[in-house]
Amino acid sequence: LAGMTGTAMTEAGEFAEIYGLEVVDIPTNVPQVRIDEDDEVYRTTEEKFNAILEEIRTCQEKKQPILVGTVSIEKSELLSELLKKNKIEHHVLNARFHEQEAFIIAQAGQPGAVTIATNMAGRGTDIQLGGNVEMQVEQQVAALPESQREEKRAELTAKIEADIAEAKKMVLDAGGLYVIGTERHEARRIDNQLRGRSGRQGDPGRSKFYLSLEDDLMRIFGSERIDTMLRKLGLEEGEAIIHPWINKALEKAQKKVEERNYEIRKNLLKYDDVMNDQRKVIYEQRKELMVTEDVSDTVVEMREQAIEDAVARCIPEKAYAEQWDTDALHEEALRLLGLDLPIAEWAGEEGIADEEITDRLKKQSASKMAAKTANYGAELMRLAEKSLLLQLLDQTWKEHLLALDHLRQGIGLRAYGQKDPLNEYKREAFDMFEGMLDNLRETVTSVMCHLELSVDAEELAAMEAAQTEMDMQETRMDPAFADAEMAMAGDPGLHPAAPMQTQNAATNVLTADTDPADAPPGWELNAALGRWVDPNDPESWGKVPRNAACPCGSGKKYKHCHGRV
Prior knowledge:
Layout: H1 12-19, E1 35-36, E2 40-42, H2 45-61, E3 66-70, H3 73-85, E4 91-93, H4 98-106, E5 114-118, H5 133-142, H6 149-174, E6 177-181, H7 188-195, E7 205-212, H8 216-220, H9 223-232, H10 244-291, H11 296-314, H12 326-337, H13 343-348, H14 354-376, H15 378-410, H16 421-449, H17 457-476, H18 479-490, H19 499-505, E8 510-511, E9 524-526, E10 531-533
Parallel strand pairs: 1-7, 2-7, 3-5, 3-6, 4-5, 6-7
Antiparallel strand pairs: 8-10, 9-10
């Protein structure tokens, strides 16, 4: 991640703290000679605009071009009306007419030109003193008949270059482009952008801000108290206060606003990190599903987990058989598995435990799914399982993101209950994520158990082709696959391997024959995998069978630990 801008130094601290990026100040190509004058502060907005009007008149008389910067479209139109009343010719740029504005801002350096612009208008176009040769040539050539355009272009270019050279000398003698700011922005960076329109590439120039005690930034920081004090000191109407101390005080006020906005952005980032951690988990699992041909193990695991959860809801831990809610479990079996089973009879058997009922439900559902596979064919069932699993995962994840957004909107109210909103958001977001996974398992189980297929050979072939294309697109996005493709392109003897094999090939695999002395610190020989792995780094494990012990050393199966869906 990198970027270039002329006003990043004021945000250097934020870049360093949040993104870990250093901001480097590159010296200007030509020494800057622009004069940045002290601010002039007036009591009212009317007095301020009258002072700006007089300054524009003075500059126009000596043919100095002026760029007046405003904080909003409303302010630019208000100032424009004032200039019209006083019959001062000017142009207004407020990002409404982009094609016209590029030409206007390019010609804003002509002698005596007055241009009013918001901070968004005219960005990306340099103001050239005297005018812009290319734009004037294009404008005049476009007005000619098409048959004369090429033959007249050279003649027009020479004439316009001579005129602009003379105009530039006039502007330089007048002091270059004069930038007037009508109000301080909340961020110093935007003020610096406005000042930076003048004095480019060593050209002379001036900049000055005209302020009033009615400006937004001034009102935030106690302008009423200052106004009372100035009245007592006998400040007359139309009289300005000019002092370097005012500039420093305003910079401090801007820094306070910047710090507040920075804290808001930093706080938002903390909330985004919660969602980002969950996104990484889901995307990693989705990628694994995309590159796996047969997802039946995952579907079986989800079905068995859904059965265990359903039994746990209906049969409380350490409860007597009389306390079991067999009716609810019967309904759950119908809803999830599509099976009408004698749950009440099972519960009435002497000495039966909840584990036995769980096992019976698993066996009955497995038999039903085996019958479906035999009926529809293993190939079609595998394709249906993968397609449905991916669709349901995507749909469930989208619904979860929407729910997180709703949670985020109201979580700030927890502060009234003396609770940290961020910690509450983390806790509830985690609970919602767990609930989403539970819901996904139940939905996949219910859909697969109630699935009825009716597909002919042509439709099956089309589905397989579409699924293969999806898999290849997803796999090509993997950096390891891209590296392997580049290697194959350079060596005709190489042949493409399966996606998961490509990933493993991209990793430095240490087989069981590797000398222990050559293994990195912290790596252990995993007998089940037949290679050296780092228990704390899942990326070093490669492909792990779902029923194998998890390499992290937890003692659980991989599918119940790091490989859990």
